[in-house]
Amino acid sequence: VVLAAVGVGCFGLAGGGGTSAVLADVHPAGARVPLGLPPIEAPPAAAAELGRALFFDRRLSVNKTLSCAMCHLPDQAFTANELRTSVGMAGTSLRRNAPSLLNVAYLPRLFVDGRAASLERQALEPLIHPDELANRDHEVVAARLGTVPEYRRLFGRAFGSAQPTPARIASALAAYQRTLLAGDSPFDRWRYGGDPAAFDERERRGFEAFERHGCSGCHLVGERSALFTDHGFHNTGVQARSTALLGADLRVQLAPGMATTIAAAELLRFGSADRDDLGRHEVTGRAADLRAFRTPSLRNVALTAPYMHDGSLATLGAVVDHYIGGGSVADPAQDPRIRPLAIDRDERDEIVAFLQALTSDRLPQ
Ligand code: HEC
Ligand code: HEC
Fold first, then answer.
1. pLDDT at position 256
2. Of 203, 206, 224, 223, nearest in space to 215 by CA
3. Could you tell me if 266 and 335 are in contact, meaning their C-beta atoms sit under 8 angstroms apart?
4. Is 295 in the pocket of ligand 2 (CB under 6 A)?
5. pLDDT tens digits, residue range 177-186?
């Protein structure tokens, strides 16, 4: 009951929020990419426009209650700040945090374990995942959309045929998401735009510390552009710490001044988010991939709390503290580059200031 109530709160917020702001601004074909991002081809405009309509449409779910945008909220950088892990169909908690969709156009593998090789393949999964849009199969979605005259028109414009098909739905959703580019942060104007005033002294020292302490060994920064990821999978000790906390009771805030405790055993009945997660290993079966997760981009990271694949760290300060403490030294599978760091309080705050300066001025809505 409690978890379902949390879910309703989420839906109310998503449903009331963004829809009017949302209808602006599809990255136009031929437009230059924002400063600091690598060149990329713009997707076909008609497919992106159709994809945008689909992304916000609850009719994509089995009972017309859930849309992509309700877990990836446009006014929260296409993630969900209130939720550690997503809440899906009928209030079920998912195991993982919803990643931001900003700049997903650049990702060679999707999902934090890299199990989808393209945005097109990725889009098919939530449509039929029983805890997400929960359709029986993709054909029923195509058939449902085929009864809507407006969609027949949009499919016709995008694909030269008014008939929705699973492949066209996936292709349109992918095209829309490829328009969600966000660069041009203070960091970009300083490093790639030649504007020394864009970055203050603390942010600059934070960036130097970021490089000196090896952060940029995984969160790559290039000469002409930066995505802050090596597209690789690493065990940074996050899951080992979360696993150690499994089985604890959960304290839930129902309203200001009103809280309750749910016993661990009870939690499992609601589909708790607290399940073990072996990360990339679940895809490859390789021992080297145990509890390894994809290196996320750090662009706009100030807007995408909570952090890590399971949302287990609430603030950027907590993330930096995780690294300073050396992750989970007890996990033998942890990447050897994650080890205790000699970083004092000032330097920690400078790194946080640098991370906050990765926020784009203009975000796609
Ligand atoms: C119930 C909440 C929920 C819904 C609905 C949902 N997602 Fe997600 N999405 C997630 C979560 C959680 C993840 C991370 C799962 C993982 O990595 O295993 C994710 C991952 C993704 C990713 C991968 C991003 C990356 O960085 O690799 C994309 C792209 C995406 N979703 C797009 C969509 C689209 C398109 C839809 C609608 C068809 C959708 N999502 C519906 C919760 C949701
Ligand atoms: C060995 C590679 C590696 C190194 C070194 C590394 N990171 Fe990470 N970073 C990752 C991975 C992998 C994740 C995601 C872990 C997860 O989801 O469980 C991550 C997550 C993050 C996040 C959270 C992003 C989000 O959206 O959730 C931040 C912030 C971050 N790292 C900053 C840093 C800083 C600062 C340093 C240096 C002190 C650093 N990283 C060093 C690989 C690395």
1. 83
2. 206
3. no
4. yes
5. 999 999 999 9
HSE of 122, CA atoms in CB hemisphere, 13 A: 24
| Lookup: tokens for 119 | 């945005």
Say which amino acid occupies 272.
S
What is the share, in percent, of the chain residues with pLDDT greater than 70?
Answer: 88
Specify the higher pLDDT residue, 362 or 1.
Answer: 362
**Residue among 97, 211, 219, 293 whose CB has most ligand 2 atoms within 8 A, to mutate:** 219
**Residue 216: alpha-carbon gap to chain centroid:** 20
Name the one residue in this structure whose structure tokens are 């195991």. Answer: 95
Both tokens of residue 251?
A: 């304290």
CB distance 96 to ligand 1 below 6 Å: yes
Binned at pLDDT 50, 70 and 90, residue 336 comes out as very high
Assess whether the C-beta atom of 73 lies below 6 angstroms from ligand 1.
no
Q: Which of 62, 55, 57 is nearest to 122 (CA)?
A: 55
Q: Over the range 259-276, which residues count as b (16 or more CB within 10 Å of their CB) and which as e?
A: eeebeeeebeebbbbbee
- pLDDT tens digits, 56-83: 999 999 999 999 999 999 999 999 998 9
